[in-house]
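# step 3/5: fold
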Amino acid sequence: MAAEADGLHGAWPKGSPLARAELMLIAANLHGYYTALETLCQRVARQLDEVVPQGASWHADLLSQMQIEVPGLSPRVVPTEVVGELHELQKFQVFPADPDSERTVPAPPLAASSTGPAPERAQHGSR
């Protein structure tokens, strides 16, 4: 995905700002992509771990939970190598609906959980 974004960025005319419609389309696509991935992770957490993170840091906690490997039961759902990129996509979860609002860039990434590490992956789940 990063290669695709770099290719699009390189093809975009220099000094040419995005039109409102283009900005909205890009933001909506990124939001939809991340929401689908997050929903999948929630389903995995519910099925295998029988617990889905709650509270203000649940987005970051869910990503942490999906990095836990249980030998003989389940591999990491989210590879460590893509976590940084997923945190970047996570910013679009809070992108303003109105691009003319004061905040016209994505919000900073959510802080790491203050409630401690994600729960260990349950040993009783099945795939």
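# step 4/5: annotate
The chain has a mean pLDDT of 74.
# step 5/5: archive (pending)
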